[in-house]
Design brief:
This protein has four helices and eight strands; from the N terminus they run E-E-E-E-E-H-H-E-E-H-E-H. By secondary structure, it is of the alpha+beta class. A three-stranded antiparallel β-sheet has the order 1-2-3, with no helix packed on it. A three-stranded mixed β-sheet has the order 6-7-8, with helices on both faces.
Amino acid sequence: MLSNHACQYHGFAFSSSGIKNSTAPQFWNFWRWKPTRKMVNLGGRFMDTISRRKRSEVMAKVRSSGNASTELKALKLLRAHKITGWRRHLPLVGKPDFVFPAFRIAVFIDGCFWHGCPRCYRAPKSSRKYWSTKVERNKRRDKIVARSLRHSGWTVLRIRECELKKTDLFIRRLTRFLVKSKGS
């Protein structure tokens, strides 16, 4: 039961007398979510009516558009600290996010979930076996790509998504790699 005082939640005032929109009258019914025809209500839970195999086929056709948010954050940091000489989308093994061709450094920005960060990764509750093999496969591929690039004379730098939050640490680590390879 709600108490007599109103509490704010996304611009709405909830009280025992009902719900009143306090800020944006044009969006008053956003909370009235209705299920689509493809879903069935199971007592508050919604189930997909498409078979598991068909859903898998549909989802397999969805292609990733890159780790845009982390990559863009790194891009902004490089520009803000006036670090130059990098390129994006060079056709190298493993498709590095940033490449410093003059220094032969390939920088990969890895998402904590997809690459199994030891600090941040939390396995999903459902399909544990699938996700553990998926993340392990990604880690294995990362090692193979790094080894291949090193054999070709490249230095590989892997930055995790959580490391981007500490901007000074990221910039210091990157500049250390750049200075070290400049001296070589």
